[in-house]
Design goal:
The protein has helices at 26-147, 151-167, 173-188, 194-208, 216-239, 245-250, 261-276, 286-289, 296-315, 319-336, 342-357, 367-378. With 380 residues, the protein is mainly alpha-helical. It starts with 25 loop residues before the first helix and ends with a helix.
Length: 380
């Protein structure tokens, strides 16, 4: 190995004359060479060891990478298999989901159709109930207009309220409240009961034949009735031949107790007839006594006709005509009939009651109910 020259050192001076001496630095440069050779050899060994270690480590790393690559490939294969299975499962789930969705949509459609059908049936039932109530109300109004009574309207409103209570539909609650208001208003209205008044007039017509007249017909009828009532009581007194003051007063002067009982009865009846020829009474209507006995039948028939006219007036709801006929009947009763009789008083009281109840009063219309029915028909 060549030792490098010192660049700093100047050029060597020329040796002096004389013998040339050997350089002192040769042994030192040889040791330096040996040292440098050892260092280089050590570095080479270290490099070789480092290279071997590095190569061994690289080899291990390559084996690890190969193993990991194989593991990753196996995992990738398994992942592909699992992905394929997942894909198949997803497709199956998708198919099932689509099938379920189709079935759900079909069930929803059927449910909607069923709800529509139920709603249509409910609405049709409610509509039929409302239509029946409306038809019943119109028929009841016609019956009330014919008869003049509020009973058909009241009965129809009650039946409609019971029917709505059983149905229990919320959309029909306004109709039910309207029916309750109309029912209260119709019940509060004072309407003449034509049927009851007609029955009373029929009873009055029947009593006409029984009330006594103020004419001789009535007098003779009263006398004959008194004779029939007193005859059973007179016969025992005569048969006992008692001399009581009552029997003496009832028999004419000159009769004796030793007469036969049949003769006494005959005398008693003759005396009763004689006493019935004369009657003292107060008559307010003097014209009634001038009525011929055969005209009493015409008076009764005329009174019956007046009562029938009043009855027809009530049935036709012509209350003014009925009141006029009843007033004429009362005037006829006061003029030609005996007011002291109980039957005459009963007939007069019956006529006054009918006249008091025969008032012009129309049946209230159920306007609230009809308006509620119309509102329900609009909202269908």
């Amino acid at each position: 190995m060549t030792q490098p020259q010192d660049p700093i050192s100047p050029a060597a001076p020329a040796p002096a004359a004389g013998p040339v001496a050997a350089p002192v630095t040769e042994p030192r440069s040889g040791g330096l060479r040996i040292l440098l050779t050892g260092v280089v050899a050590a570095l080479a060994l270290v490099s070789l060891a480092s290279a071997w270690y590095t190569q061994h480590r690289v080899h291990n790393l390559e084996q690890e990478l190969v193993r990991r690559q194989q593991d990753s490939q196996s995992q990738a294969a398994e992942a592909r298999v699992l992905a394929r299975q997942a894909d198949d499962a997803a497709r199956d789930a998708m198919a099932k989901s689509s099938l379920l969705e189709a079935r759900i949509s079909e069930v929803s459609l059927k449910r909607g159709q069923l709800e529509d059908l139920i709603q249509s049936l409910s609405r049709s039932r409610d509509d039929s109930v409302v239509n029946d109530i409306e038809a019943g109300l119109r028929v009841a109004l016609q019956q009330s207009s014919i008869t003049g009574s509020a009973e058909p309207v009241v009965a129809t409103l009650k039946a409609a309220d019971e029917r709505l209570t059983k149905s229990n539909q919320p959309r029909l609650e306004p109709l039910r409240r309207a029916i309750a208001r109309d029912l209260d208003r119709v019940k509060a209205a004072s309407v003449a009961d034509i049927a009851t008044l007609a029955i009373k007039l029929d009873e009055a017509t029947r009593l006409v034949d029984e009330v006594p007249l103020l004419t001789a017909e009535g007098v003779s009828a009263a006398a004959s009735a008194a004779a029939v009532a007193s005859a059973p009581a007179a016969r025992p007194r005569v048969s006992q031949r008692s001399a009581s003051p009552s029997s003496a007063a009832s028999a004419p002067q000159g009769t004796s107790a030793w007469w036969p009982s049949s003769m006494n009865a005959w005398v008693d009846s003759v005396w009763t007839d004689v006493r019935g020829l004369v009657r003292v009474a107060r008559v307010d209507q003097a014209d009634a006594m001038l009525l011929a006995p055969d005209q009493g039948w015409y008076v009764r028939e005329n009174l019956k006709l007046r009562l029938l006219n009043a009855r027809l007036g009530l049935l036709s709801r012509q209350f003014d005509l009925a009141q006029a006929d009843l007033q004429r009947c009362s005037a006829t009763l006061d003029r030609y009939f005996d007011r002291s009789s109980r039957k005459t008083a009963a007939l007069a009281e019956l006529l006054r009651g009918v006249a008091a109840q025969s008032k012009q009063a129309s049946v209230p219309r159920p306007d609230d109910t009809l308006a509620a029915i119309a509102a329900i028909g609009v909202n269908r």
